[in-house]
Amino acid sequence: DYKEKTELTRQKMRTMLYSKLRAYRDVCLVESQRRDLEALVAQRTEELAQANQSLRDDVARRDQAERELTLRNDELHALNAQLGSAHEHLIQSEKLASIGQLAAGVAHEINNPIGYIFSNFASLEKYLDDLFRMLAAYEACESTQSNAQAMSDIKNFKDSIELEFLKEDIPTLMNESKEGIVRVRKIVQDLKDFSR
What we know:
The chain has helices spanning 2-142, 148-160, 163-195. By secondary structure, it is mostly helical.
């Protein structure tokens, strides 16, 4: 029985030893797999870190490009506004030049007839002065006339044309007309000055 027990014990020990060796082998295998897995995880972590850095660099480049694009866009808006302002200024200048040319043409067209009227006005004033002096001479002769019928006809004619009123009103009309012509001449001169 001792032998048997020893044999059984030996078998148990062998089984236990095999079992322990298998367990050790399994532990070594698991440990080896764990190291391989850790190395793989470390490699993948490094790859992810590099990919993450690459993405950060890409985002930074895109942000920089977006800032530059925004800056260029702002510059273009400013240039467009300046161009619009210059275009409006040019149109305004062209309009003013057209108005100036129109004013010069109007001034020229008005100036010619006004020059004729103004030169004729001086002659008309002289003629009226001569007529008034002659009328005064006739009136002075009226008192020496003895023909009562002729004197009555002259008085009736003077009353019908309102000679006294005409003698007062004609100089006033001439002065007002002369003043109007002078004002028109000033307007013409102002138009000429504006056109330059």
